[in-house]
Amino acid sequence: MDELNNLFHGFAVAATLPNLGFMLIGIVLGVLIGVLPGLGGANGVAILLPLTFSMNPTSAIIMLSCIYWGALFGGAITSILFNIPGEPWSVATTFDGYPMAQQGRAAQALTAAFTSSFVGAIFAVLLITFLAPLVARFALKFGPAEFFAVQLLTFCSFVGLSKEPPAKTIAAMMLGFALAAVGMDAVTGNLRMTFGFTELLKGFDFLIAVIGLFGIGEILLTMEEGLSFKGRSAKIRLQVVWQTWRELLRHWKLFLRSVLVGCWMGVTPGGATPASFMSYGIARRMSKHPDEFGKGRIEGVVAPETAAHAAGTSALLPMLTLGIPGSPTAAVLLGGLLIWGLQPGPMLFVEQKEFVWGLIASMYIGNVVGLIVVLTTVPWWAAILRIPFSIIGPVIIVICAIGAYTVNNSMFDVYVMLVFGVLGYLFKKLKYPLAPLVLALVLGDMAESSFRQAMLLSQGSLAIFWSNPLVASIAGLAVLMLVWPLFGAAKAALRRRETLADGRVTP
Fold it and tell me: If you compute the radius of gyration of the chain from its CA atoms, what whole number of angstroms results?
C-alpha cells in the first residue's frame, strides 16, 4: 500500500537525530505546560510558536505537535494528585482519579491515565494514517464553491454541535470574522478598519492574537482565582505498572467505545473536553457498578483520558486534509503552517509528502516517548506545583511578551497582545467560548476568498452552491447544523408545555 510506503519514508524523516531531539524537547515542554494550571495545549503551542520560526518546517511542526501530546499527558497529573485540572479535558479525570489518589492508589491512577492516553492517541493516529490520504484525494476535486461549503459546514457545526449557547458561539464567531477583515482587501486593495494605524495594513497577526487570548487571558483569570496547590506526591514503580496493565486488558470494550467517541468528536468540531465528559457518561451508564463512579473506579479514569487523547489527535485530520482545524490547538498549528508558507489542504499531500508523512510518523514515536517520559518523571512534575503561582504567573506573562515582540520586532504587537489578553479574560469571565473566535480569525480570510471566487465564477449567482450533488449536500448539511439548536429549543418548549398541561390536569 502507498500509505505504508509513505509512512516508512516518514519514519526515516522523523527518526533523524535532530528531529528526535526536538521531539523530546517538545514532550518535556508539553508536560510542563499541561501540569501548570492556566496554560494548556493551545496556549503552550501559541506561546512557543515564535521559537520555531528559524527552524525547518518539518522539525518545527514535530516539536509543536509533541508539545501538544505532552500537554495532553500532563493534564492528568494535576487532576489526579491535586484535584486541579491542568487541562479543561482533564476535569472528568478528577472525578475518580483524585479519590484513587486519596485512597493511596495514585500510582495506579496515573498509570491508567497515561496508558489510556497513549491508546487513544495511537488509534487516532492510525485513523489519520489510512484515512487522511483518501480524504485528501477526494478533496482534490473541490473548487471554490466546495471549499466555501466545507468552511461553512465547519462554522455551522460549531453552532450546532457545541455545548455552548448558540447565541454566544455566533457572537464570538462574528467578532472573529470582524477581526479577520481588518487590513487590506486582497481583491480591491481597499483598506478596512485600520483606523490610520499602518501596523494594521496586514491585519491582526494570528499569533499575536492567540498568545493574548489564550496565554494572557488564562493567566489573568488564574491569578484572580488565587490558586493554591494541595495534594499528594507519587512515585510509580514498575510492579504497579505491570499490575495496572494486566487489569486494563479486561477493559478492552471500554477502550474501544472511548476511542470511537473521541475520534468522532475530534473529526467533528466537538473537541477533547466534550469527548471526555461524553465517554465518562457512557462508561458510567454501561457499567455494572454505576454507583461506584466518583469514588475511585479505574474505568472513570480510563474513559475520559482515552477519549480526550483520541479527540485531540484526530482533530488534526481535517486540519491536514481540508485546512479546517477541529480544535483550538489545531487552529494554532494551522496558523503556524501558514506562517511557514505551507497551505494545509489536499495539495499538501501532493506537494509536501515528506512534511506530511514525517509529521504522521512523529505522532507514533512522540506518543511512545511521551508515555515513557511521564511514567518516569511524575515526582518532578508534582514538585513543580509547590512553586508559588505568584512566581510562575509573571514568568509566563514575560514569555508571552517576548514571543509577541519577536514576531515582527515591534512593541505595537506587545500592546495588541495585551488588548487580546483582556479580551480573552472578559470572554472567560462572561463564559463566551474562545474556540469559535479563533476559528473565524484563522479561516475568515480563506472563507471570504473562496466565497468571492465562487461568486466570480457564477457571475454573482448563489445557485453555484447547489449546482452539483457534492456542494449541495455539504451546504445542506451546513444549514442543518446551523438550525439544529432550534429543533432542540422547540423540543424543550414542547416538553415544558406538556408538563404545564399535566400540572393543570392533575388534581
Answer: 23
Dist CA 94 CA 84 (whole Å): 8
**DSSP characters over 130-169:** HHHHHHHHHHTT--HHHHHHHHHHHHHHHHHH-SS-HHHH
Here the cell at position 361 is 510518523
- How many Cα atoms occupy the beta-carbon half-sphere of 490 within 13 Å? 5
The answer to whether 160 and 427 have CB atoms below 8 angstroms apart is no
C-alpha cell at 35: 501540569
pLDDT along the chain (507 residues), means of 10: 73 82 86 68 72 78 81 76 65 80 80 87 85 72 77 76 77 89 77 79 76 76 64 63 83 86 72 74 79 81 87 80 71 75 74 80 84 78 64 75 75 88 88 79 80 85 82 84 78 78 58
CA 498 vs. chain centroid, Å, equals 40
Could you tell me if 48 and 8 are in contact, meaning their C-beta atoms sit under 8 angstroms apart? Answer: no
Euclidean distance between CA atoms 436 and 171, whole angstroms: 9
Sign of the dihedral through C-alpha 342, 344, 350, 352 = positive
43/32 Cα distance (integer angstroms) = 12
Number of Cβ atoms within 10 Å of the Cβ of 365 = 18
Predicted local distance difference test score (pLDDT) of residue 371: 83
- Angle at the Cα of 39 from the Cα atoms of 34 and 40, rounded to 5 degrees: 55
Rounded to whole angstroms, how far apart are CA atoms 334 and 402?
22
Distance CA 404, CA 53 (A): 13
The span from the CA of 407 to the CA of 410, in Å, is 8
Cβ neighbours of residue 323 closer than 8 Å, sequence gap 6 or more: 334, 343, 344, 345, 443, 446
Distance CA 175, CA 183 (A): 15
Q: Distance between CA 212 and CA 43 in Å, rounded? A: 9
Could you give the 3-state DSSP secondary structure of residue 183? strand
Alpha-carbon span 335 to 353, nearest angstrom: 19
Helices (H), 36-105: 41-48, 57-82, 91-102
Tally DSSP H helices, then E strands, for the chain.
22, 2
Query: CA-based angle 416:421:426, to the nearest 5?
Result: 130
Please tell me the number of Cα atoms within 13 Å of 466 on its side-chain side.
7
Q: With contact defined as beta carbons under 8 Å apart, do 58 and 13 qualify?
A: yes
Q: How far apart are the first and last CA of the chain?
A: 71
| Helix runs in 315-352, H state only | 316-322, 328-339, 348-351
State the number of CA atoms in the 13 A half-sphere of 505 facing the CB: 6
| Largest pairwise CA distance in the chain | 79
